[in-house]
Design a protein that fits this description.
By secondary structure, the chain is α+β, with helices and mostly antiparallel strands. It has 20 helices and 18 strands. It has helices at about 10-15, 50-60, 85-90, 95-100, 110-115, 145-155, 220-225, 245-250, 255-260, 285-295, 335-350, 375-380, 380-385, 405-410, 430-435, 435-445, 465-470, 495-515, 535-540, 545-555; strands at about 65-70, 135-140, 160-165, 180, 190-195, 205-215, 230, 265-270, 280, 305-310, 310-315, 320-325, 355-360, 360-370, 390-400, 420-430, 455, 480-485. α11 (about 335-350) packs across α16 (about 435-445). It is globular, with a radius of gyration of 24 Å. It comes from Pluteus cervinus.
Length: about 575
């Protein structure tokens, strides 16, 4: 079953990995002619999928926390029909609080449905195939549930995925016929005035910090942080997980210009490794493993059970700046795009973090903790100047808010929930924005139909020595804006349209490489799920070291995910 979309089993990546040491199971396949054996990952429907008794025994070993999982619209279709739950699903369909609380639901719904049909608005008798939703989910409530699931999967050669909120744009938390470890119910926050990591030399002074369990989501953390009069470096989001993919991908934040990325604020990680053991990672114990998890991406490194982040003082205000500069005639559009790209260098050098889009000009929202009238006037000067051009219509509104929580309550919404929106992206450096402006502006101008957006704009406060402590692509040292070019489709779109749009993303990647060159990188969490040269684009020169660490900590390659380090399974359009 898995083989339907698995190609390229003989990837070079795979050649160095160790064969399984346990005895060969009779139905295990050998897939190589060079004594290269891919780890089998049995999915539901495969001959070696455990039988009902084995599942029942496993289920009782985890206190009955094994559940069948289904697409989020299954309750509206014959087999799983439940009129009441169907009404709820219809009402809450794009509500990310509801969606992240469903075992089988995913935000980028293409990663729930795949090419199957299980639509919320189709008739009760219309088909509802499982799509890419895992067959079983372990609704973990204890670390021992996760250990048991990892051991069971290891022993039975199961295809496992780790799901937290299901927000991943690259489909890393779903998988057809898989066993899913669902971390959503593992809630808990512990605030520390003075935290010292395990194994630190004696005399190391403690720092304010918070320990979060795997299922924590950002809005809950922000509300509790406010009560403790601190802030945590997290996303401009409400329901993204604070501990899972956000962290392993790097984690950008409105606080990044002051405090770096989430990975730069990470003190310690607790996780369950591929052999089912628990392990604590920090810069003293397991420094290589700790380095890898700080940006190494997805679930390639084990199942994180909790993390400890530094916390920071509450800012005295949050300054928000809404900018929109529009052309009043078509001939000015290109000029405004060009000017905005250069303007973003000044804005980000001034400490602002933002998000934006290109629509006959530029529209953006920027944030600066403790921003003042002076930082505002100097940082946005290029936009004020542009506003005086003939054919330009400028609006800039600064807003002073008393707190981060007030910002959350006023501005945070979750976009693209239950949509088929995916994109290809590249980080634009200050030199690409300042010195390669015409080429970048032309690229954006020519692709205006594909809603160019900026998923992140900012100068991250992490110097090259700090960046070397993480697995983040070196492009993050001077990345100023993450350009996204997207596609989207209606749920009912024909397979041919879906395929053609996915292939479009590969074209975008190639076009951006043509303009930006091979040293450009991106943010792996907001990247092309079909990125052709993903090792280079996601990690650049750091990939080799990551792969070495991966082979050491997960020698049989139990944890695979789309375009994750060491993966030998390929996701194609
Ligand atoms: C509305 C929205 C807004 C966003 N805003 C931001 C933002 O402001 N800043 C930013 O940096 N990113 C942002 N993102 C991107 C976000 O960080 C990624 O989608 C991220 O992968 C979500 O992680 P998750 O754990 O919540 O989701 P999931 O889909 O559940 O998991 C994502 C990946 O992490 C793995 N994973 C999850 N939990 C664990 C665990 N406990 N142990 C090991 N692996 C695990 C999964 O296997 C999968 O590979 C946003 C996404 C959305 C949908
Ligand atoms: C696991 O056990 C619980 C409790 O007995 C039961 O409710 C549940 O249906 C079982 N899961 C599966 C997949 O059979
Ligand atoms: C999440 O779902 C569970 C089980 O369906 C339900 O009991 C709980 O109230 C839901 N929580 C939220 C916050 O919606
Ligand atoms: C389902 O139908 C409702 C009511 O017509 C509509 O508002 C909604 O957008 C539809 N949802 C999808 C996913 O098509
Ligand atoms: C903002 O100002 C407050 C109070 O002066 C200070 O404690 C905090 O560190 C500052 N934060 C940032 C991000 O500059
Ligand atoms: C910033 O400017 C606004 C409008 O001009 C003014 O009302 C406000 O008091 C100024 N804030 C500070 C901190 O000077
Ligand atoms: C520019 O266009 C955007 C999108 O249409 C709109 O929201 C915004 O208000 C416009 N801004 C100005 C200054 O006209
Ligand atoms: C642009 O190029 C000039 C001349 O080579 C160089 O001095 C400057 O640093 C470059 N600007 C950026 C932002 O890279």
């Amino acid at each position: 079953m898995l083989l339907d979309y698995v190609t390229g089993f003989f990837s070079l990546l795979f050649l160095g990995s160790l064969p399984r040491t346990s005895e060969t199971r009779t139905c295990q396949l050998f897939t190589g002619n060079n004594h290269v054996q891919a780890r089998q990952r049995y999915a539901y429907g495969d001959e070696c999928w455990p039988n009902a008794n084995e599942w029942a025994t496993f289920n009782s070993s985890i206190s009955g926390r094994l559940a069948r999982s289904f697409p989020s619209a299954a309750v509206c279709h014959t087999e799983e029909y439940d009129g009441e739950l169907c009404d709820v699903a219809r009402t809450e369909w794009t509500n990310s609080f509801w969606r992240t609380n469903q075992t089988g639901a995913y935000s980028a719904i293409l990663w729930e449905l795949g090419y199957s049909q299980c639509h919320i608005n189709s008739t009760k008798t219309a088909p509802c195939q499982p799509g890419l939703v895992p067959h079983y989910s372990v609704a973990a409530e204890a670390i021992s549930d996760i250990q048991a699931a990892v051991r069971f999967a290891y022993e039975k050669d199961l295809y496992i995925v780790v799901k937290n909120t299901g927000h991943c744009f690259l489909g890393r938390s779903s998988g057809i016929g898989a066993l899913s470890i669902w971390t959503h119910n593992l809630k808990g926050r512990e605030w520390h005035d003075s935290f010292v990591v395990d194994g630190a030399p004696s005399g190391t002074s403690g720092v304010p910090a918070v320990t979060l369990q795997a299922g924590e989501q950002w809005l809950d953390v922000y509300q509790d942080a406010a009560a403790h009069d601190v802030i945590v470096v997290g996303g401009a989001v409400r329901t993204v997980g604070a501990v899972g993919g956000y962290l392993t991908g790097g984690g950008h934040s409105p606080f990044a210009s002051k405090y770096g990325l989430a990975v730069d604020n990470l003190l310690e990680v607790n996780l369950v490794t591929a052999n089912g053991e628990t392990l604590t990672l920090n810069e003293y114990s397991n420094p290589d493993y700790f380095w890898a998890i700080r940006g190494g991406g997805g679930s390639a490194w084990g199942v994180i059970t909790s993390v400890t982040y530094k916390t920071h003082p509450n800012p005295s205000n949050i300054q928000v700046v809404l900018v929109s500069i529009n052309s009043t005639d078509e001939s000015t559009v290109r000029t405004l795009i060009h000017g905005s790209l250069q303007g973003l260098v000044t804005v980000t050098s001034g400490g602002y973090i933002g998000y934006g889009q290109i629509l006959n000009g530029f529209q953006g929202l920027f944030i600066q903790p403790n921003g003042t009238n002076e930082t505002f006037a100097s940082s946005f000067a290029p936009f004020f100047t542009m506003g005086t051009l003939p054919g330009a219509d400028l609006q800039i509104i600064p807003i002073d808010l008393p707190s981060w929580l007030e910002y959350c309550n006023t501005f945070l919404t979750d976009i693209n929930i239950a949509a088929n929106a995916i994109s290809s992206s590249r980080l634009l450096s200050s030199s690409a924005l300042m010195n390669n402006t015409k080429q970048v502006a032309d690229l954006i101008y020519n692709l205006r139909d594909h809603s160019p957006t900026f998923g992140f704009i900012g100068k991250v406060n992490a110097d090259s020595s700090q960046r070397a402590k993480t697995a983040m692509h070196p492009a993050w040292e001077d990345g100023r804006a993450l350009l996204d070019l997207g596609v989207d489709w209606a749920d009912e779109a024909p397979t041919s349209e879906k395929k053609q749009k996915k292939e479009k993303l590969i074209q975008f990647s190639n076009l951006m490489d043509g303009v930006l060159g091979d040293s450009s990188g991106t943010y792996t969490n907001e990247a092309n799920p079909y990125e052709p040269d993903w090792q280079r684009v996601f990690w650049g020169p750091k990939y080799e070291r990551l792969l070495k660490i991966k082979k050491k900590v997960d020698p049989t390659n139990l944890f695979v995910c789309n375009r994750c380090v060491g993966t030998d399974v390929f996701w194609e359009p």
